[in-house]
Write a structure and sequence with these properties.
With 295 residues, the protein is an alpha+beta fold. 47% of the residues lie in helices and 23% in strands. Strands 1, 2, 3, 4, 5, 6 and 7 form a 7-stranded mixed beta sheet that branches. InterPro entries: LIM-bd/SEUSS.
């Protein structure tokens, strides 16, 4: 995937329609990432915190997000509006599983996902699971990230590094020759060292991305998508069960789980007339024939 000259929503709608099934979901799990700050955790919505579970690592730590088919075009567009120039995935050899219905699942034990910006790159490493329909459209895409790193161009911070090294050397020289009294040169070297340190720290801060390695617009789009999706679920559940919106909101996680179970057991088809979404759901829940085919 790479940026086009005309980054309009119609292009991304066509892109999503070409490569994703209407029942598709895309999920990111960050449960295995260490040293996630509280500020980063605050980015996840309360509903996601209550209901999130990764089907790859099995974690219920609530550190993850999910995007439905309807929200994919806007998310793709937002990524490139946020300064991302290219998105690359480096894949190894996958393990392949074919379901009785013809669905194909590829599991990658190690994947490197790289987001390229003008002056830096963000790299996530982890595991990937992709499930395709028979026509090779994606039904389910989940990436379980284990770590992420940020790489800056050398020329972006070269001057600040040189200033910092020079200031550190002068400060060390002053310490080595310290005679018990704080001279003017010693005081100047100390101030120079502190200033150089602050300048280098500011240069290392990536204003376009957050602590998780995603653009701020990207996460805002995810939050809006999560809120809209939750509102749709609340309306549907409220109508199906005949309960009020406040009660529905208080018990959202439990009611949503019950709704998914009822849907899977009822054999309701997806909007495109297939039961792909339900088969994937059965697999992820570890039930039925799908799970036995993988054992």
């Amino acid at each position: 995937m790479h940026v086009l000259q005309n980054n309009d929503i119609d292009y991304w709608r066509k892109f999503s329609s070409e490569y994703y099934a209407p029942c598709a979901k895309q999920r990111w799990c960050l449960s295995m990432c260490k040293n996630i700050s509280q500020q980063a955790l605050d980015l996840f919505t309360e509903t996601a915190m209550e209901s999130w579970c990764c089907s790859i690592c099995g974690s219920k730590s609530s550190k993850g997000f999910e995007v439905t088919y309807e929200a994919l075009p806007r998310l793709f567009k937002t990524n490139f509006e946020s300064g991302m120039l290219d998105e690359i995935m480096f894949l190894g050899l996958p393990q392949e599983h074919i379901f009785p219905s013809g669905l194909i699942m590829l599991e990658y034990g190690k994947v490197v996902q790289e987001s390229v910006y003008e002056k830096f790159r963000i790299v996530h490493e982890g595991k990937l699971r992709v499930i395709f329909r028979g026509d090779l459209k994606i039904v389910y895409w989940e990436f379980c990230a284990q770590c992420h790193e940020e790489f800056l161009q050398h020329q972006l911070i070269a001057r600040q590094i040189n200033d910092f090294v020079e200031a550190a050397q002068k400060y060390k020289s002053g310490i080595d020759n310290f005679d018990g009294s704080l001279s003017k040169d010693m005081h100047s070297s100390c101030n120079m060292f502190v200033t150089a340190e602050h300048q280098l720290a500011r240069s290392l801060q990536l204003s376009l991305v957050n602590d998780l390695g995603f653009s701020r617009k990207h996460f805002r789009c995810l939050q809006i998508s999560e809120v809209v999706g939750t509102m749709k679920d609340l309306i549907t559940i409220s109508q199906e069960l005949g309960i009020g919106p406040i009660e529905c909101l208080k018990n959202y996680s439990k009611l949503k789980e019950g709704k998914e179970t009822r849907t899977a057991n009822s054999g309701v088809t997806t909007r495109d007339g297939s039961d792909d979404g339900q088969e994937v759901l059965q697999f992820l829940d570890g039930h039925g024939e799908l799970n036995r085919t993988l054992s």
